Amino acid sequence: MPDAARVPNISLSKTGHETPVHLIYHDVLKATAERLRRAFPGEVMYAVKCNDNPLVLDALHAGGIAHFDTASLTEIAAITKQFPNATCHFMHPVKPAPAIRSAYWDYGVKVFALDHEDEFEKIVEALGPNAKRHKILLSVRVQMPAGQTVMCLSGKFGAPLGEAAALLKKVHDAGFKTGLTFHVGSYCTDVKAYSVALKRCRRVQAMAGEVPIDVLDVGGGFPCQYLGTEPAFEAFAEKIAAKYRKLGFKGPCKLFCEPGRALVGDGMSMLVQVDLRRRNDLFLNDGIFGGLSELRFLGPYFPIKLVSDRPVEPCPTAEFQLFGPTCDSIDSAPGPFLLTDAVRTGDWIEIGRLGAYSNAYRTRFNGFYSDRYQVVKGHPFWMLEAAQTSIEDAA
Ligand SMILES: Cc1ncc(COP(=O)(O)O)c(C=O)c1O
User: Fold this and answer.
1) How many Å apart are CA 320 and CA 302, to the nearest integer?
2) I need a labelling partner for 25 at 20 to 30 A (CA). Which of 8, 31, 315, 352 fits?
3) Rounded mean pLDDT of the chain?
4) Which residues lie with the beta carbon below 6 Å from any ligand 1 atom?
5) What's the pLDDT at 1?
6) Bridge partners for 139 per DSSP
7) Residue ending a domain, choose from 264, 281, 299
């Protein structure tokens, strides 16, 4: 591959200065949604928190996503406005009572997550006596063992098995439809984590006296191919299907999953400008308070490439540390990130696989904020390079 690539349909000379651009690969997002839906033995919903950009949502919807895991009334309102026929699931286990009430009565939401009996009482009271309980599904979130993933969520949400079982029984006895759900933690690279989780859910059902469950929602957590060694979504789906069959859950028990990262990670990148090269430190016009926070949390695994309108001679690769534009010294990603040594002040670089928890995490800290989005046709450089490598490996 050449040292500098061009981003399809973007002219850097017309891009202007100082403002990073979020590139949206619509075809990649759509194809990923179609692929995950083909692989999963149930319904795939999308966790909106991961990336709520309307253009991203459009691409997923074009790929057949019609169910959305929403965590707030704001997300529910936005999804309902953009896709009036979509189904929102209110999967945050802790919700303000007015949000519960409005979700049901104003937006027709009929699925709510919970992990504590006080939340159950709150939901019952907020819905009121006229709610049609037999059409409302309450999904009990089961706590997962810690330490299974890079980003564990169990410290915050999920009921221990005994409490989850009592809650499940309570939901059933009160005349609601029943569900169990969990989240193994984000960026999970071990398919066995889902077997462990399903076993825990089956145990909860047994402890609750085998009350039937209508929905088993295996959450998100599926990885993106940052390292290239992560199991594919298909491997997780196969494992989940096999374990689910083996455990013999009682009830209609339709399977759902709610990926964020695995659906959108590959479908976006950022185009950032080098404000200064100081030795092998690159000061960029975006950083961890903008769309690049995952670079610091997850490490130097994101594909990175010089994209330049100027002629660039082939040059060896060097190791770089990245700094963002704010004055805070934590606004940095130590890397090392591998990039051509030809990079210099004023150049633009594209950082790939930034669809998950990137633009969603942006702040306006120090006045730096980019809201520039550009839909790009075709495939991004990291996918083309991966395809090229596998052709070369096969030859
Ligand atoms: C309830 C719930 N579902 C799904 C997701 C999406 O997780 P991921 O992006 O790891 O797939 C999250 C992320 O925090 C979540 O809290």
Assistant:
1) 13
2) 315
3) 92
4) 47, 49-50, 69, 91, 153, 183, 186, 219-222, 258-262, 356
5) 37
6) 113, 179
7) 264
Tokens of 387: 């395809």
Q: Where among 264, 285, 311 does a domain terminate?
A: 264
Q: Of the residues 36, 151, 183, which should be mutated to test ligand 1's pocket, given the most ligand atoms within 8 Å of the CB?
A: 183
* Residue 308: per-residue pLDDT: 82
Q: What is the DSSP string of 190-218?
A: -THHHHHHHHHHHHHHHHTTS---SEEE-
Q: How do residues 337-372 score in pLDDT, each as one tens digit?
A: 999 999 999 999 999 999 999 999 999 999 999 899
Query: Among residues 155, 137, 251, 237, which one has the least CA distance to residue 201?
Result: 251
Query: Which amino acid, 30?
Result: K
Q: Give the Cα separation of 36 and 44 in Å (integer).
A: 7
| Cis before 311 (ω within 30) | no
Ligand 1 atom showing the smallest separation from residue 222 Cα: 11
DSSP bridge partners of 338 = 319
Q: Given pLDDT bands bounded at 50, 70 and 90, which one contains residue 386? A: confident
Gap between the Cα atoms of 177 and 173, Å rounded: 10
Number of structural domains in the chain: 2
Question: For 270-288, what is the mean pLDDT?
Answer: 96
CATH number assigned to the domain comprising residue 277:
2.40.37.10
Query: Ligand 1 centroid to 120 CA: how many Å?
Result: 22
Q: How far is the CA of 46 from the centre of ligand 1 (A)?
A: 9
**What CATH number does the domain containing 82 carry?**
3.20.20.10
What pLDDT digit, counting tens, does each position of 290-337 carry? 999 999 888 889 999 999 878 888 899 999 999 999 999 999 999 999
Residues 18 and 48 in one domain: no
Q: Closest Cα to residue 116, out of 89, 94, 146?
A: 94
Residues 187, 261 contacting (CB under 8 angstroms)? yes
Rounded Cα gap, residues 232 and 225, in angstroms: 8
Indicate if 56 and 196 belong to the same structural domain: yes
Check whether 264 has a pLDDT greater than 80.
Answer: yes
DSSP type of residue 142:
B
Residue-range definition of the domain harbouring residue 135: 27-264
